[in-house]
């Protein structure tokens, strides 16, 4: 589910990287 959120978020925004770092461990 977290992966889908990251994919739906524009990769051009710095926020995406921050969310990816937080969501990736949560999704694991």
UniProtKB/TrEMBL annotation:
InterPro entries: PSII_PsbH_sf. Residues 1-28 are annotated as: Disordered. One of its GO terms (cellular component) is photosystem II. It comes from Leptopteris wilkesiana. Coiled coil: none annotated. One of its GO terms (molecular function) is phosphate ion binding. The keyword Repeat does not apply. GO terms for biological process: photosynthesis; protein stabilization. This is Photosystem II subunit. Keywords: Chloroplast, Plastid.
